[in-house]
Every structure is written in C-alpha cells, then in structure tokens.
Amino acid sequence: MVVQVGNIQIGGPQFTVIAGPCSIESENQFMTTALSVKNSGASILRGGIWKMRTSAKAFQGLGAEAFDIIKKVKAATGLGLVSEVTDVRQIEEIAHIVDGYQIGARNMHNYSLLKELGRQPKPVLLKRGFSAFIDEWIKAADYVLAGGNENVILCERGIRTFETATRNTLDLNAVVYAKKHTQLPVIVDPSHAVGIAELIPQLCYASAAAGADGLIIEAHPNPAQALSDGPQALTLETFDKTMKQLERVLAAFDRRLQKA
Ligand code: PEP
Ligand code: MN
Question: What spacing in Å lies between the alpha carbon of 254 and ligand 2's midpoint?
Fold first, then answer.
C-alpha cells in the first residue's frame, strides 16, 4: 500500500527519505537544515514542535512559536512536513501546517490519540514504542485504520534491550516482519535507534537492504549546539555523503531514491 504525504509517496517502488532537526529551534536553524537536506535528496521534512523529553527541565520545543517558521520553510523548499503530536488538541492546532502527524514512541499506546487521528485524513507516522512487541505496534496501527484513516506508516525506531553501548537497539527483524505481515509502508529511524551520529550511515544502508520503504533521519547545521538529540544529529555534510552512498545501495536492489 502507498501512503501519500503531501505530493510524495511512501511505500511505492521508490525509497523516501524524511530529514530535519529533532526540534525546530529557530528560523535560521530550520531553514538552513531544510534547504540543505532537500538539496541532498530528502523529499519530506521533519522537525519537532512539542518535544517529549525525559526531563521536564529539558527543552520542550518552541510550540506555537514554530508555526511561522514552518510556513516560511515550507514556502522556501516546497517540501511537506511531518511533526509529532503529543496531545489530541494539537491535531487541529497544526492541521494547517503539517502534511503528516508523527506519533512518538512514548505515545504508541495512547489509544485516544490514535483514535482521534483515525478520524482525520492526514497520514500518521506511527513510531514503535521502545518496549512494544511488534504485534502491539501493528495492533496500535489498527486504532487509526479502524477510524477510517488508511494512511498509516509504521516506523521502527529502536527498542530497549540489555545493551547500553547504544541508545536503543535497531530491530531490523521488525521491519522485515511488518513488511511481510501488514500492507503498510515501513520506514526506519536510525537516529533514535542507535543515538550515535557516526554509526547512523551504516544503519541507513542496512535498512535499505532490509527492504524498508524509507528513512527518517535527524540532521542539524551544528549538532554540538542542538537543543535536543545533538549526539545523534548528522551534520549537513555527513547527511549529503550518506545520501550519495544510499543511492548506490538502493541501486543494488533495483530501487531509486524518490526526489521532490
Ligand atoms: C523524535 O522523532 O524526535 C522522537 C522523539 O522520536 P521517538 O518518539 O521515536 O523517541
Ligand atoms: Mn529526536
């Protein structure tokens, strides 16, 4: 099944890359990132408006202050945006500026949020909870589908295991399993899976080889200064190099990168 995000298809023969910062921090940061990742071959933008942070003292996102920045960046790039909603009220609040809603790992089990997203037409990018069984993740998608919204994209973003050297453990089993047992597009978020920028390119290539429909990758013009998830943000230069190598990997599987 193909899900349309703006004018870009996810789940068709081509491979789709969503990229952008973890959080929208300023007009300059989001604009610089968006223009650069588009130039490198990303066809959809990401960028957090409200952040689900472990610490209440950590940066919580710009909230409504990000709306004008988003309008400017979308106008300048022509790209669509997916962004996380953490509360049912936010669905309506950002309907005019997003092309898809992200459900974060911490909210995969938030069934009232999933039901509400099932009642509106925009696509839903459903992250797997970090302790969720594959089956629970697939059943969570059913909450959106049952409401009449068939536009669900599954996203594997790493699970909690006994391992502590990396942030989480990327479960490529889940990608091939979900591709086999559902009709839904499946993408991979290597950024939250491994949490270490220099390990991300290899996981992008592995995900493409495993048959994922696309990737969602965090990138930042200056990762050391990022207000969230700096250690896992690719620099814009590394993102560009990674995309070039990714195209070679895709070619080995007779696939191509979707261009905006
Ligand atoms: C994110 O995409 O920035 C994010 C918070 O992801 P997750 O919900 O997978 O932790
Ligand atoms: Mn993040």
Answer: 31
Cα–ligand 2 centroid distance for 60 (angstroms): 11
Q: Decide whether any atom of ligand 1 lies within 6 Å of the 128 Cβ.
A: no
Q: Which residues keep their CB under 5 angstroms from ion ligand 2? A: 22, 229
C-beta of residue 191 within 8 angstroms of C-beta of residue 200: yes
Q: Is the pTM of this model over 0.85?
A: yes
The band of 178, judged by pLDDT with boundaries at 50, 70 and 90, is very high
Q: Which residue is it, tokens 């998608």?
A: 141
pLDDT digits (tens, 9 = 90+) for 184-229: 999 999 999 999 999 999 999 999 999 999 999 999 999 999 999 9
Q: Which ligand approaches the C-alpha of residue 126 most closely?
A: 1
User: Does the beta carbon of 157 sit less than 6 angstroms from any atom of ligand 1?
Assistant: yes
